[in-house]
Write a structure and sequence with these properties.
By secondary structure, this protein is α/β, with parallel strands linked by helices. The chain has helices at about 10-20, 35-50, 55-60, 70-80, 105-125, 145-150, 165-175, 185-190, 205-215, 225-250, 250-265, 270-290, 295-300, 305-320, 320-340, 345-355; strands at about 30, 60-65, 85-90, 130-135, 155, 180, 220. Helix 4 links the parallel strand 2 and strand 3.
Length: about 350
Amino acid sequence: MAYKKKAPAEHAFRRIQADLKNDTLKNIMIFYGPEDHLIRWSADKVRERYVDPAVEMFDLMKLDGAVCTAADIRSACETMPMMSEKRVVIVDDFNAGGRRNSKADDEEDDEKQDKNDELIEYFSNFPESTVLILISREPDKRRKLFKTIQKYGADYEFDRLDMTQLKAFITKHLRAGGKRFDMDVPAMIAEMSGYFDKESDYTIDNLINDISKIIAHSGDCITVEDVEETVAGNEARDVFAFSEALAAGRKGEALSLLTPLLSYGEKEFKLLGLICSQFETVLLVNEMRADGLTTSAMHDRTGIHEYRIKKSLPLAQRYTVSRLRHILMKAYEVDRNIKSGLSEPRTALELFVAMV
């Protein structure tokens, strides 16, 4: 018997859009997750839907969840809207029984729990004239408060976007900038942005800033070269220059390039990861070039962006497979030594240059 693959869960910002369009939005909601930008965007969409701009100062109430009481929240929700369809109350930094790190946190959480117990009772008879948005960083989904919100309202987890969602997000913002762009540009921005780097705190807010810089930097049509020069900037160029010097055996030049690379604030093991990635690409291109593959065919086989493949071709043509493999194996060895604590990171990188 064949089983259907379970479809991925719809992202919270898509659910909000659908609920607003279909007028199925609940009166009590909790927004949480790492994507603050999407949380703010969704809260703003709810405000636009229900609050008349002429009376926003009366019908939109924002509370600080760290200091407000259950009575404050209840009073804000019980006030009737002046002219808007509904009154909107937003409680930021709301404690919903998330992770605690100390005894002091436990004592503070006990105080918050008293407030939450009051709200649990209140939510069972919540006014239809108000929409309440609780914004929480790390709610405890096992708590009665969270389950009560699910029972009488809805929860929206604003997790990080996947690649398809991120490319769609980038495409939308590029189009909003009023410029044409090469079809490969959204994917390249997604790949080069650092959004998917495990050790990075790069968020949608950072991405929007980068898109704005790309739009400002480019001409009438945004190209992949514009993306590389704007998003990757000096770091990507220096990594490539370092790799080229290393492959050519110009150790003095390679060592001199380590200083600016480390000055970008990257951790040494992440920098080594970028170097490994560069040589992995060059080695793959070298092997596929020997098989007679075109850059388009190389992209189809590996998923590596064609621009990166084209940029790696000169290195791939200049050095042998054995030379590139030797450098890559040494890089892997140094990476293991750094992560296992056998070597001091900066010294290990300098020895890596000396060894190859």
